[in-house]
């Protein structure tokens, strides 16, 4: 049997694994597919394999890997047996906005012509992406509620909707606080169109969890931002990102050398 047909058969097994959410079946066949593709599968099979990997990354809450896999094939998508292109871009935006720093998000998603073309047909995804990027926090909170409903109804994303929504709220709060040394709770509440009590409860919980760096002065009704801790957190994230990039390059080089030997 030709290599291409073998890879197609493996893709079918992976789809069956997705249907039953059989992680063992999916992982075994992803490994088989990778071996076959390294033997010399064509460009189309390689692209489709990245989408299968990215889809499984979503299923196991690895949004970072999903982002990397999806963004690499935005302009060459052909995996219509797994999902349509609009759904693919929706998944790509959900993963990218969660993982990419603001500048990378702008370069790889906000300004990507292929993404923008689809967003005109998916206004809910467009508002979700641009409202956070443009610091329109009230619109973002409303869009995030819509995203939560999408996650609830999606069998791949459903197990992660609470985690995802919580982390995106933290991201929005952190983005706003990053520009200030201190901020009144009433101003934050106004920006998000919620009550000051809601903001105070949210921030208190996230500060206690080590997710937001600052302290609340209840007497003055303000949050004082710990810029040093925030900077160290961003530095740590950057070090991890650079480490992941280096690891990926080493793994790619290792596979290349294995094929040559």
UniProtKB/TrEMBL annotation:
Keyword terms: Proteasome
GO CC entries: proteasome regulatory particle
Pfam families reported for this sequence: PCI, RPN7, RPN7_PSMD6_C
GO biological process: proteasome-mediated ubiquitin-dependent protein catabolic process
Residue ranges of every copy of the PCI domain listed in the record: 62-230
InterPro entries listed in its UniProt record: PCI_dom, Rpn7/CSN1, Rpn7_N, RPN7_PSMD6_C, WH_DNA-bd_sf
Family affiliation: Belongs to the proteasome subunit S10 family.
This protein's name: 26S proteasome non-ATPase regulatory subunit 6
Source species of the chain: Ignelater luminosus (Cucubano)
């Amino acid at each position: 049997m030709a290599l291409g047909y073998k890879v197609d058969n493996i893709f079918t097994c992976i789809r069956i694994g997705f249907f039953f959410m059989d992680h063992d079946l999916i992982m075994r066949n992803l490994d088989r597919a990778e071996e076959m593709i390294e033997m010399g599968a064509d460009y189309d099979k390689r692209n489709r394999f990245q989408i299968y990997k990215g889809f499984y990354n979503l299923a196991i809450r690895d949004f970072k890997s999903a982002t990397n896999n999806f963004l690499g094939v935005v302009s060459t998508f052909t995996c219509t047996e797994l999902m349509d292109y609009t759904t693919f871009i929706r998944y790509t935006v959900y993963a990218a906005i969660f993982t990419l720093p603001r500048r990378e998000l702008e370069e790889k998603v906000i300004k990507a012509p292929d993404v923008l073309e689809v967003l005109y047909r998916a206004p809910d995804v467009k508002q979700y992406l641009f409202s956070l990027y443009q610091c329109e926090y009230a619109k973002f909170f409303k869009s995030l509620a819509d995203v939560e409903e999408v996650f609830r109804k999606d069998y791949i994303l459903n197990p992660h909707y609470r985690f995802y929504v919580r982390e995106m709220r933290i991201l929005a709060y952190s983005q706003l606080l990053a520009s200030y040394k201190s901020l009144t709770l009433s101003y934050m509440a106004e920006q998000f169109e919620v009550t000051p009590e809601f903001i105070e409860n949210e921030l208190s919980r996230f500060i206690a969890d080590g997710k937001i760096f600052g302290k609340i002065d209840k007497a003055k009704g303000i949050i004082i931002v710990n810029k040093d801790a925030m900077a160290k957190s961003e530095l740590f994230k950057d070090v991890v990102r650079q480490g992941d990039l280096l690891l990926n390059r080493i793994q790619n080089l290792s596979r290349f050398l294995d094929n040559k030997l």
